[in-house]
Amino acid sequence: MMTSRRGTRIRVAALAAVCAAALLLSGCSTLFPPARPHSTTSKPTGEKVEPALQPFYSQVLHWQACAGGFQCADARAPMDWKDPGKASIKLALIRHVASGTPIGSLLVNPGVRAHRGSTS
């Protein structure tokens, strides 16, 4: 009975030593390649659109670093999508690059926030 307990202790100690060595060596490993640098340009998707909308869909956005680790760019959009030649507006965009595998973009427009203390 003493032999089996001693054998069990030896096996547990050996397993713990192997796990500790594997954990220490994992910090020295280069199994995972470094993250790809993120592009600073967003290129058009090549969608087929009406000629009047083509200037908006063919934009190349040039992202630049801005506060808090975000990236900022400007894009032009028509004021009226039904009459895109009439007038356009410059939109200020901000993004935070995904830390994992990117699956797409999430665009958010919070709109105009009403002032809560307003009495009018």
Number of helices: 2
Into which percent range does the helicity of residues fall?
10-25%
Radius of gyration over all CA atoms, rounded: 28 Å
Strand content: 15-25%
* CA(first)-CA(last) distance: 88 Å
Mean pLDDT: 74
Describe this structure in words.
The protein has 120 residues and is an alpha+beta fold. It contains two helices and five strands. The chain has helices at residues 2-26, 54-57, and strands at residues 41-42, 61-62, 64-66, 70-78, 88-95. It has a three-stranded antiparallel β-sheet, with no helix packed on it. It has a two-stranded antiparallel sheet with strand order 1-2. The radius of gyration is 28 Å and the shape is elongated. 0% of the residues are buried. Residues 23-37 have low confidence and may be disordered.
Q: Which descriptors would you attach to this protein?
A:
120 residues; alpha+beta; two-stranded antiparallel sheet; 2 helices; 5 strands
Q: Which SSEs are present, and which pair or pack?
A:
Layout: H1 2-26, E1 41-42, H2 54-57, E2 61-62, E3 64-66, E4 70-78, E5 88-95
Antiparallel strand pairs: 1-2, 3-4, 4-5
